[in-house]
UniProtKB/TrEMBL annotation:
<feature type="transmembrane region" description="Helical">
    <location>
        <begin position="12"/>
        <end position="35"/>
    </location>
</feature>
<keyword id="KW-1133">Transmembrane helix</keyword>
<keyword id="KW-0472">Membrane</keyword>
<protein>
    <submittedName>
        <fullName>M56 family metallopeptidase</fullName>
    </submittedName>
</protein>
<feature type="domain" description="Peptidase M48">
    <location>
        <begin position="176"/>
        <end position="252"/>
    </location>
</feature>
<feature type="region of interest" description="Disordered">
    <location>
        <begin position="294"/>
        <end position="319"/>
    </location>
</feature>
<feature type="transmembrane region" description="Helical">
    <location>
        <begin position="104"/>
        <end position="126"/>
    </location>
</feature>
<feature type="transmembrane region" description="Helical">
    <location>
        <begin position="47"/>
        <end position="71"/>
    </location>
</feature>
<dbReference type="Pfam" id="PF01435">
    <property type="entry name" value="Peptidase_M48"/>
</dbReference>
<keyword id="KW-0378">Hydrolase</keyword>
<dbReference type="GO" id="GO:0046872">
    <property type="term" value="F:metal ion binding"/>
</dbReference>
<dbReference type="InterPro" id="IPR052173">
    <property type="entry name" value="Beta-lactam_resp_regulator"/>
</dbReference>
<keyword id="KW-0862">Zinc</keyword>
<dbReference type="GO" id="GO:0006508">
    <property type="term" value="P:proteolysis"/>
</dbReference>
<feature type="transmembrane region" description="Helical">
    <location>
        <begin position="338"/>
        <end position="359"/>
    </location>
</feature>
<dbReference type="InterPro" id="IPR001915">
    <property type="entry name" value="Peptidase_M48"/>
</dbReference>
<keyword id="KW-0812">Transmembrane</keyword>
Length: 360
């Protein structure tokens, strides 16, 4: 490939090939290794940012590779090439003659990939909003105020009274008459925290506090918006192993973040270590009772007991891994987090900077 501008830089064929290779590496071995790693449990927020960067970097690299092939004859970088193409379309009313045949096909393929990724995200967001609205309407008919959560005779009087005291102050919680031990959130302008009667009668008052704070953390941090891109692209690109790994890992990391927030905000519970044991006990108790992940509108930010997303039954982001993480109380790996943020920045910036620097 030769450039009209003849600038000094990376050869266009090498740039396109490098971007394509980067996309393959990010969606393949990099995602596989990151999904098996255990360090994210110590720095879940940084790990989640890294997963976002891996997905975004892979998409930018794949689209960028096709764009380089398509517009390479029009300039020495993306900006000059687009200016040349725009001038030809606006002034001459014709598509640049240099972009024909296989170059045009590469450009169209890149545009289609970008359009599919964006349209799937938008469509998923619209459908999610509609499902949440319908779900809230159903909940308004089927749930009851939290102050009436614990039916009489479901446990010792003191235990029932303590649960009632917890739920009396939880005006944002609704109770669903269901014997299963489930909890989930319905995010949005009129958000809901839904607990089943089975969950309420299963847990002690302090454990119930931990579960409620866990669900509130999902709503405060809008974890549904964080998870939406992973879910949307998994629907369309679920055959790609890296996309499936990204969705599963993101769901587990989001649950870890909610666990940490719940422990921090359990002000009425005893000291720090006890708070972690209380929440770990709630997770284990619900899991042993057969509690499962509830995804009313395909959102992972739902239940205090997340599906096991780790490499095995005791994976780092599964229920057993989360319980172990809470009991170990290992301090955050600050140096690892800083390095992770730096790597995430590099992954997103690399394809962008290469397109700006250009080719020769």
């Amino acid at each position: 490939m030769t450039s009209l501008a003849g600038s000094s830089g990376i050869p266009a064929w090498a740039l396109a090939g490098g971007l394509a290779l980067l996309a393959v590496l990010l969606t393949g071995p990099v995602s596989a290794l990151l999904a098996r790693a255990h360090w994210p449990s110590r720095s879940p927020r940084a790990a989640l940012v890294l997963w976002q960067a891996v997905c975004l970097g892979a998409g930018l690299s794949l689209v960028g590779a096709g764009v380089v092939i398509a517009v390479e004859p029009l300039g020495h970088n993306l900006a000059t090439a687009l200016i040349t193409a725009g001038r030809s379309l606006l002034l001459d009313g014709t598509w640049p003659a240099a972009v024909q045949g296989w170059r045009l096909a590469a450009g169209i393929a890149s545009a289609v990939i970008a359009a599919v990724l964006f349209s799937v995200l938008v469509r998923s967001a619209v459908l999610t909003v509609r499902r949440r609205r319908a779900h809230r309407q159903v909940l308004d008919l089927l749930t009851r105020p939290s102050v009436r959560a614990a039916p009489a005779g479901t446990g010792p009087a003191a235990t029932t009274h303590e649960r009632d005291a917890v739920l009396a102050g939880a005006v944002d919680v609704s109770i669903l008459d269901d014997d299963r031990a489930l909890a989930y959130t319905v995010p949005g302008w009129h958000s809901r925290i839904v607990l089943t009667a089975g969950l309420v009668t299963l847990l002690r008052a302090d454990e119930l506090t931990g579960v409620i704070e866990h669900e509130r953390a999902h709503l405060r941090s809008r974890h549904d918006l964080v998870a939406l891109p992973f879910q949307a692209w998994a629907v369309t690109l679920g055959r790609i192993p890296g996309v499936r790994a990204a969705r599963a890992a993101a769901a587990g990391l989001i649950e870890m973040l909610a666990d940490d927030a719940a422990v921090t905000r359990m002000a009425s519970a005893p000291g720090g270590p006890d708070r972690r044991r209380i929440l770990a006990g709630a997770l284990a108790r619900v899991a042993l009772a057969g509690g499962a992940e509830v995804e009313p509108d395909a959102e992972p930010a739902g239940s205090p007991v997340a599906a096991d997303h780790g490499p095995g039954p005791a994976g780092p982001s599964g229920v057993a891994g989360r319980v172990q993480r809470l009991l170990q109380e290992r301090p955050p790996a600050r140096s690892t987090a800083v390095l992770t943020y730096a790597v995430a920045l590099v992954l997103v910036a690399t394809p962008t900077v290469l397109l700006v620097i250009g080719w020769r």
